[in-house]
Design a protein that fits this description.
mainly alpha; 2 helices; 66% helix; elongated
Length: 74
């Protein structure tokens, strides 16, 4: 098996990283989208599959809101 030749330096730069503002903006967009999905699922709440979806999306939304709060420092 041939060994992989390692580069002497990392081959990435700072432009590959998200800033806190960019990450926060993306979280805000996803929170808005998931909130809309939840509203639609709640209209069909009698369906057992919809109830399971609501529970999963509620947990996902709570995790995203917690991450957003941490980014905001609140």
């Amino acid at each position: 098996m041939d060994r992989v030749k390692q580069l002497p330096l990392d081959d990435w730069n700072d432009q590959d990283l998200l800033t806190r503002d960019e990450a926060g903006g993306r979280l805000d967009e996803e929170i808005e989208a998931v909130t809309g999905e939840l509203a639609e699922l709640r209209l069909a709440a009698q369906d057992p599959a919809a109830r399971a979806g609501i529970e999963l999306l509620d947990r996902r939304l709570a995790a995203m809101k917690a991450a957003r709060a941490e980014l905001s420092g609140s």
